[in-house]
Amino acid sequence: MHAALARSERMQDGPVIVDNREALVYLLSEAAEIEHGLMCCYLYAAWSLRREAPEWSEAQHAAVARWRGELVGVAREEMVHLALVSNLLNAIGGAAHLTRPNFPVWEGYHPTGVTLKLTPFDRATMDHFVFLERPENATDADGDGFDPGAFFPRPLPAGRLVPTAQDFATVGHLYRGIADGLAALCAKLGPQALFIGDPALQLDARDLGLADVVRVVDLSSARAALDIIVTQGEGLQQCDGHSHYRRFVSVRDEFVRCSGEDPRFVAAWPCAVNPVMRAPGNPRERVHVVLEPAASLLDLANALYALSLRTLAALMSPHGVDPAPRAALARLTADSMRWLSPLAERLAELPANDAHPGVHAGMTFTMSRSLRMVPDRDAALLGLAEACDLIADRARSLADAAPGVLPGLGAAMRGHCESLHALAQPPRTAPRAPTDNASATLASVKAATLNAAQPRAAPAPKQAEGFCGGAHRADATAQDAPSAPLVQSARGSGVDIHFESRRCIHARHCVLGAPRVFLANTPGEWIVPDAMPAEELVAVARACPSGAITYTRHDGGAEESAPEVNTLRVREDGPLALLAALRIAGEAPRLRATLCRCGQSANKPFCDGSHATAGFRASGERPTISADPLPQRDGTLDVRPTRNGPLDVRGNLEICTGTGRTVLRTVAAKLCRCGHSGDKPFCDGSHARVGFVADGE
Measured between alpha carbons, how far is 83 from 315 in angstroms, rounded to an integer? Predict the structure, then answer.
C-alpha cells in the first residue's frame, strides 16, 4: 500500500475536536484554504490541456475536450464549496477566509495526505486528484511524485484555548468533524448564541450564478451546506457517478486507455511543475518564469486573480449589502475569474525559462499580502476601480502577446472601472466631516479621484471564436447601448449559440436543460454546443425567456420564427416576459425579451435581475379582465418606453399570468415599469407620484 495512504489510515478514526467557536473558525478556515487550493490545482491541469493537435483523431479531440470540461466543472464546484464555507464562517461570527499559502504548499501545513502543488495533466496528476477526492472508505493510492516523504502528525493537546492544526485522513473526515462540532456547539451555546453573523453578508445562487450556493443562518442550513460539499465528492461512503471522485476516476481511466491505444498521444502542453513569478529560494520543484511574453502575461494573470479575490472579499463584506454595489461586485468577480482562462491557456503554450528547455509556463495563482477588507466602502470601490484601470492599461500594452484575448479583457476592465467609480459616493461633509489630517487627506484624495474619473471610450474588442470581449458586462452606458450589443458566441458543428449577458435574468432554463452545454460560471470557454443533439439544444435556447440566448443553424434545420400568438407573461415578483415579433425602443427586431417592472434595473427597459436584490413583490396572478378573442393574434408588437413613465405596447397581445391563465387580450396597453402601480401589471399613474425617472420617448 502507498505510504501516504497508510499514514492517512492511521488517522482515520481520530476525532476532529471542536471545543469552542475559535476552534470551529480555525477548522473552517483550513477547509476554505483546501477548497481554494484544490480549485487552483484542478484549473491548472485543465488549462494545461491542448485545444487541438493535427495528429489527434476525432475521438482523441473529443476526449480531451471532455476531460477539460470535467476538470473545470469540478473546479467550479470547489468555488461553490469555498462560498459555502465562507457563508458558514460569516454565520458564526467569523469572516470569509480567502487567503492560502502559495504553491507548492509546504509539507505539514495540511495533513500528510493533502499535498497541494501545481502540476500539468498526466497520469500521476489524475491519480493524485482521485486520492484527494477519495471517500473515507476508499483505498486509492496517491500519484507518483506526490508523497511528502515524511509523516507530519498534528495532534491537538487537550484543554487548549488557542486552536491549532488537527489531523484528518480525508477532506470528508474534516467536514464530518466540522458538522459534529457545529451540532455540539449549538447544543452548548444555543442557536441564537452560535449563529451571530449578519444574514445580509450571506451569498446565494443569484450572486455568483452558482446554483448550489445556499445561505447559512441556523443549524439546519449549516448542515445543508455541509451536505452539498460532501455529496459532491469529498467523503461519501457511497459515491455516485457525479461525485468528484467518480468523475476523476472516469477521466483517469479514459486517459489511460487512450494512451495505451496510441503511445504517441500527447494531451497536454509540457507545463512546469510549480511555476513561480519570483526567483525561488528553494529551486526544487519550482520553475522561475522569466522568458517573454510569458513573464508579463503571468504578471497580468496574477493581477486579475488578485482582483477577483479582493472583489469577492468585498462582496462578502458589509460593502456588498446594498443592491447596486452588490450587483457590480458580483459581475466583476465573475468576469475577472472568466478572463483568467484564456490568459492561462495562452501561458501554457509559451516557454518559461531557457534553463528548463522544453518546459512551458503556467498560471501560478500568486497570493497577495494585501488581501484584506478595506473598512471604508468608497475607498474599497475606488481601489478596485483603480486595479481594473491598471489591468486594462496593461492588457492594451501587451495586446500583441495574446491578440484574441487582451483587447477584450481591456475593454471589460475599463467598463468595470467606470461602473465602480459611478457607485463610489463623493466625500461626505457634515455630519461626518474629517476630524484629523489623515481623514482630511483621505477625503481630498477621494474627491480628486472622482473628479478625475472621466469615462473613456473602450476600444472595440476583437472577438476570438468561443468567447467574447466581455465589454457586455459593463453597466449600460451611452457607449454600451442596446442598439449595438456585444454577444458571446460559440460555434458548434450544427448550431451556433449566442449569449448576451445584459439580457440574462438567470431563469436557468439553459443550465438546467442543457448542463453539459452551458457550464455556468466557468472560466473561459463555457458554452459547448456539440454536447447535445442540435434539436434538443435549439429547444432549450428557445426556452430562454429573456432572449439572452439565441442560435444560428447551419445544419439545414429551421431558424427560430415568430410565434402564432403574441404573449406577455407576468412573472411572480419579477419582470414581464414577452414572446412576439418585437420592436423595442428602436432596437433590432427580436423574438423574446424580459422587461423590468420593479423600476430598479440598470439596463432599462430590460430586466437585469434587480427585482431580486431589491425585494420587489408583485403577484403574477391578477384577476381576468377580458378573454374576448382577437381577430388576429400574431404580427409585430411595438414596445415603446415613455420618458419617466410606463411601457406603451401596441399590437396584438395576450397578457397571461405566470401559470398561463389569460388576463387580457388587447391591441394596446400601458404597463407599469416604476414598480408602484396599484393595478399591476398596468400603469395607474404612480410613476408621477413617486418621481420615477427613466429614459424614453
Answer: 11
